[in-house]
Amino acid sequence: MSVPRxxxxxxxxxxxxxxxxxxxxxxxxxTGAARRRALTESPAEGLTELAHLDFLGDTVEPQPLPxxxxxxxxxxxxxxxxxxxxxxxxxxxxxxIGGGTYDPETGHYGQGAFNADDMTRAxxxxxxxxxxxxxxxxxxxxxxxxxxVCYLQTTEGPHAGNVVLWQQSDGTLTRSASPPEKPDxxxxxxxxxxxxxxxxxGEGFEAFRRAGDRAFAAFLRDRLELALTxxxxxxxxxxxxxxxxxxxxxPGWLITRGADxxxxxxxxxxxxxxxxxxxxxRRAAAQLAEGIAALASxxxxxxxxxxxxxxAESVSQWHAWAAQMPTxxxxxxxxxxxxxxxxxxxxxxxxxxxxxxTAGGCDNGWLPAPVDRNQIAYGVDSRLRAxxxxxxxxxxxxxxxxxxxxxxxxxxxxAAGEAVYDPKTxxxxxxxxxxxxxxxxxxxxxxxxxxxxxxxxxxxxxxxARTAAAPHGLGGVPExxxxxxxxxxxGELTGAAEEVRPDSAWTGESQYSDGAYAALxxxxxxxxxxxxxxxxxxxxxxxxxxxxxxxxxxxxxxAGARTASTARxxxxxxxxQGITPAPGALTPVALPGTFAPGGTLxxxxxxxxxxxxxxxxxxxxxxxxxxxxxGPQRSLALLHNGDGRPHTARVTVPGQGPVTxxxxxVRARALGSRTATVAAGQQAQVTVPAxxxxxxxxxx
Length: 700
Description:
Layout: H1 3-11, H2 51-56, E1 57-60, E2 79-82, E3 85-88, E4 94-97, E5 102-103, E6 108-109, E7 114-115, H3 116-133, H4 136-152, E8 166-167, E9 173-174, H5 192-211, H6 214-234, E10 242-245, E11 248-251, H7 259-274, H8 279-293, H9 325-336, H10 339-359, E12 365-366, E13 370-372, H11 377-394, H12 399-407, E14 421-422, E15 427-428, E16 431-432, E17 438-439, H13 444-458, H14 463-468, E18 476-481, E19 484-487, E20 492-494, E21 497-500, E22 517-520, E23 525-529, E24 538-546, E25 554-559, E26 566-570, E27 585-588, E28 600-606, E29 613-622, E30 624-630, E31 634-641, E32 647-652, E33 659-664, E34 670-676, E35 683-688, E36 693-699
Antiparallel strand pairs: 1-2, 3-4, 5-6, 7-8, 8-9, 10-11, 12-13, 14-15, 16-17, 18-30, 19-29, 20-23, 21-22, 22-29, 23-28, 24-27, 24-29, 25-26, 25-28, 30-31, 31-36, 32-35, 33-34, 33-36
Helix pairs in contact: 3-4, 3-5, 3-13, 4-5, 5-6, 5-7, 7-8, 7-9, 8-9, 9-10, 9-11, 10-11, 10-12, 11-12, 11-13
């Protein structure tokens, strides 16, 4: 489904319900042998099962229209397509439905039954399954979907090469959906669905050329070249143009100004170039990859810890869904021979992932505090495949156990404590809320990304890779101690300090944690009692609103009563607003040093200018954060040091066998390992390198 709708979800806004009235006839994705692929087409012990994706599939027979046609439409009128949503019924079966309000008179949805976003990515699933297994049925399914996607592509007029997003079940195109998408009409400019069409066409060309279907491969080449025309016309003509976002120079030549959308296009362009696509595709891939890499931010101990930000329009948000930037950069580095792109990918994968995992996993939105803690397969899959891609390309063996810890989300290592992927049916549930509630619907996007994850795991070979290939044995979470959020408005406010709860917590580019902040006038203060459960010292990063006003004022931060351990945060060091939707930027600022658990942290405003200073929250974590997963056969623990000096920590790892400790630096390079006998229930002591991490393994 479309990204604007997903952004609404991230903000907690109301989303239209999708009624069962008028839905397609209910069909259960059977768990029986009749629905399962032959053993000759699927690995007997693999995780990948396509039954539910097959169930979501359908055909449509549209008429040729000016600007909309596809390969052999007159000879083969039935095109492959895919229902957008699948609603779980009381008996456990699923009902396929479209997006938006259903009109029983026309049989149409406000958006549509099918959409290019999901059809393209489903085609990638089938292509990769064919590549892994040689399945003829998967190649046929990919061909049908690619023919359907190409019908959605506009072939003439000023917007030729762009793609209509929505289609009704009778084949009618919905150029303007309700609720509307951006752009509107959906083929009037660059879009996420253009990026995903490029992804599918690139991998399709590579696969069908290898399969020997030269005629269809040539057709896909023509359509990819047409999409490239749109990309060059509407996006890459701005290559080399730099814009300003809260004082930072950002690239002006990304699709929808996003590294997230652009990364999915790069996956297709690099596949196309790999298969002989030519200089034009290589140039486009290089230009987009340069723009993506330019959004890398922070570093060890500094938010967002080396991650590539998804949007040029905000320096204050990261989201797990569509965060395929490291994957794309690794692919571009390989195809283009650009090592510096891989370095950026490695900083994201190795530097940010341990922070993310110990904090709670692949959240929908850090804005910049982890505000939206819902988790979906799209986010988990994006992080998992990034880890595996960068591990393969970058000589970073420490990324493999991080991949195992990430993938374990599918098998119970989540807030619900339940598996959300079923290898017998291929169902992936639509998400897990922070309170543990599972959305047991299983729409196209969740199904697709669950399967992309399983295909990535099934394709692994080799020693370190095999570690990542068995995450389904790690469903328990005995311990997690990572990032915590201390709300400013819930601290002790003193003097000229007050709680402010704006009408909307969303600023247009970031979001106030818990919907409020503390406004501090001159001399106003706020204090917190730090968590006392941590084993060892704490790190702290206040989230403050930085503005472009040198006379704005500052906050002075102090731990306990020790005046010697103060730090001054200047709130006027923000930059020119530029293209961002709102002035100022919510920014986590790392305080120097460490803090004692259970102590007091105080902030006091000084030299305040015309407007009160805004403090949103304080991000607090142990110097050594941890995540421990366990299962019936083994346990796996991650210890991540967020500080710039080594720290020693103790961890209890369930099991009876010897304990193996592996040490890695900030780039996931191995620093050494040791194995020792530790009695069951006893703690292992580990000294974790500065900004590095340790992986602790134990058999049950």
